[in-house]
Design goal:
Pfam family, one (chain A): SRP9-21
Number of strands of chain B: 3
Strand content of chain B: 15-25%
Shape of chain A: elongated
CATH architecture of chain B: 2-Layer Sandwich
CATH superfamily of chain A: Signal recognition particle alu RNA binding heterodimer, srp9/1
Structural class of chain A: alpha+beta
Domain SRP9 (chain A): 5-108
Number of strands of chain A: 3
Number of domains of chain B: 1
CATH class of chain A: Alpha Beta
Oligomer: heterodimer
Strand order of the largest sheet of chain B: 1-2-3
Region (Disordered) (chain A): 33-69, 145-166
CATH superfamily of chain B: Signal recognition particle alu RNA binding heterodimer, srp9/1
Distance between the termini of chain A: 21 Å
Radius of gyration of chain A: 18 Å
InterPro entries (chain A): SRP9-like, SRP9_dom
CATH topology of chain B: Signal recognition particle alu RNA binding heterodimer, srp9/1
Helix content of chain A: 40-55%
Number of helices of chain A: 5
Biased composition (Basic residues) (chain A): 156-166
Chain lengths: 166, 131
Amino acid sequence: MPYLPTSQAFLEQSAQLLEAYPDTTRITTKYHFPTETPGARAKRSKSQLKKAASTTSETTTTTQNTPAPVASLTLKTYNPTTGIVLQYQTNKIAEVSRLITGLGKLASGADVASLGVSGAAGGGDVEMVDAPAVAEVVPVAAPAANANANAGQGGKGKKKGGKGKR
Amino acid sequence: MAPHLSNEEFFSYLTDLLSKTSQKARGSVYLSQKPLIDGVTNAPPSILIRATDGNTNAPNPKSQSKDGKITKKASSKDKIKFSTVVKVDDLEAFYTRYADVCKAGMTGLKKRDRSKRKAKGKGGAAKAAKA
């Protein structure tokens, strides 16, 4: 179950998977809050408050006594017959609208080329081979890329991921 | 299974579900989409969109006693699920709306932090370039 480093990569791979298996592939979007034990919650709220206090800018600490945990959004493209899963996770609201629009394009049967990809579209046979291959290759690269994205340097990771794939 | 909602109804239900989840700051919302292919026509298929809160009405198998009787009821009896079918012609309009509804409802996600970018300059700028 690879997590793809960028939303663009996710959409591209999903498009290929959908193209190969249009009738059995489904896309699930999960919006979820982390489950926390009371202890973990207390710890997190403490550290968040501390952080808010240390940033002495004019930004008023919008976080109240019990700041809410940060939710996250996981997109999953799953094909049950082949067992291929593609995943992408984010916690930034800024990405939501782009992602959903992308899902809309996938739903209307957009191919890889129309997703605004630079010359990645190949023949059908190549793509069918490509998707499973990525499923095996990506886990190695994914943790590093994910860490990047979480640290707020997604831009860097994005470029890397894009280049590595082509 | 409950019948499919109209697209309008779906959005109002979804707005409700998302805002409730965000307010509680716990739980999940699952949204799934898949093409409805009947295998007869070759026309581009309609898209089935489902939404659920991920609860289940099925009894917990762990609470099943040895004689096969279920001693406990399901822990959460109020599973929320609803679905709609989007026709090919409506896809674009639907997804524009869908994106708006999701963006408005998913308030638990990290907001774009503009003030930080201004204050910090360099470090913030790198972040902003991504977002």
